[in-house]
Amino acid sequence: MRIEFDRDTCIGMFQCVDEWDGFEKNLDAGKADLLDSEETDDDVFVAEVPEGEEFEAEFAGRVCPVDAIKVYDDDGEQIV
Fold first, then answer.
1. Which of 15, 46, 63, 69 has the highest count of CB atoms within 10 angstroms of its CB?
2. Which CATH number belongs to the domain containing residue 55 in this structure?
3. Is there a contact between 45 and 7 (Cβ–Cβ < 8 Å)?
4. Domain interval for residue 50
5. Which molecular function term from Gene Ontology is one that the record holds (predicted)?
């Protein structure tokens, strides 16, 4: 499972941080950070979701109020 985080879209509500340890607060920037991710382009960060953390990662994507988080299954289909 892969997760993508559009940091430009993030408004710093930090709901993702409350739902999954893969995100952390960056109070200096007023936005969340996706841990262990790589920046692709335009401030989009991508990471593999560790085994056993799929539910939490999906939920982090579902609670984002501005849809800055997308989650894809192993076949590349978007599930959030």
1. 69
2. 3.30.70.20
3. yes
4. 2-72
5. iron-sulfur cluster binding
DSSP letters spanning 48-68: EPPTT-HHHHHHHHHH-TT--
Asked whether residue 57 is domain-assigned, the answer is yes
Question: Does a structural domain hold residue 78?
Answer: no
pLDDT digits (tens, 9 = 90+) for 2-57: 999 999 999 999 999 999 999 999 999 999 999 999 999 777 999 999 999 999 99
Q: Which residue has the higher pLDDT, 42 or 59?
A: 59
Domain tally, the chain: 1
Contacts of 16 (CB under 8 A, 6+ apart): 23, 32, 60, 61, 63, 64, 69
Q: What span, in angstroms and rounded, lies between the C-alpha atoms of 73 and 7?
A: 21
